[in-house]
Specification:
This is TIGR04219 family outer membrane beta-barrel protein. By secondary structure, the protein is mainly beta. 4% of the residues lie in helices and 71% in strands. The protein has one domain: Beta Barrel (Lipocalin).
């Protein structure tokens, strides 16, 4: 497994001025992401198109996050984020894949599960009507693609299991006295042929402690582990609801 580094982002964070929160802040939200999937998986040199061959469709993409901000100098703020992606489909293989021998064609059922848990440590660089956060994320990525012959015994399993260090950036622009804002946030890393980025842009409305968001999210995974690899992209709209204190 390749070790990924984000030294450039670390230098940027250390050299940037830090604006600490005046009071303790706490927030949480849950969201639903209606994503489309494209790309391919590789197992020992065999390649399958997850969209055209497997016809994978979204079953449920759930996301939840929690953050804690404080006024203590030097110490970073903390954000936790969990994403679960589940896709299923019925398709037909046109070539051998991962121990499934096709012959004249094999009908298959496929399941793709991607589970992510992020721990982000970040600093507020700007904190007024323009907000800017910079930090580092440790992402635990656990993915599994199961392909099984319908009416038969042939099956294949492709797995991705890694902990990835990533850069984190979030920006938000508030329209004063309205509760309305627009923003974007993302995590990213690229090293030695592997890459992962996860970006979203949104509009937001806050009233009292309630926070509502709607936007668009795109996630791209290009990761290789020994003879198995996953090169996929998920993108689509999302909506979320949360509370802030």
């Amino acid at each position: 497994m390749r070790k990924l580094v984000v030294a450039a982002c670390s230098s940027l964070i250390l050299s940037a001025p830090v604006a600490q929160a005046d009071v303790v802040g706490l927030g949480a939200n849950v969201s639903y992401w209606d994503s489309d999937l494209s790309g391919q998986a590789t197992d020992n040199g065999d390649v399958v198109d997850v969209e055209n061959d497997l016809n994978l469709d979204s079953d449920s993409n759930a996301n939840a996050s929690l953050y804690f901000e404080h006024p203590v100098p030097v110490l970073p703020n903390v954000r936790l984020n969990y994403t679960l992606i589940e896709q299923t489909g019925r398709g037909q293989l046109g070539a051998d894949f991962g121990g499934i021998f096709v012959g004249s064609g094999v009908d298959v059922r496929s399941d793709l599960d991607l589970e992510q848990l992020d721990l982000t440590l970040y600093y507020e660089v700007l904190d007024n009507w323009v907000n800017l956060d910079l930090g580092l994320t440790a992402r635990s990525l656990d993915g599994e693609l199961n392909v099984k012959e319908i009416g038969g015994t042939q099956a294949s399993k492709t797995q991705v299991d890694a902990v990835l260090p990533m850069g984190y950036v979030a920006a938000r622009f508030d329209l004063p006295l309205t509760g309305v804002s627009v923003g974007a946030e993302g995590n990213f890393v690229s090293y030695s042929g592997d890459s992962l980025h996860d970006f979203s842009a949104y509009g937001q409305f806050e009233i009292a402690v309630l926070q509502l968001r709607a936007g668009y999210r795109q996630m791209s995974i290009d990761y290789e582990d020994d003879d198995e690899s996953l090169d996929v992209e998920l993108d689509g709209p999302f909506v979320s609801a949360g509370v802030v204190f």
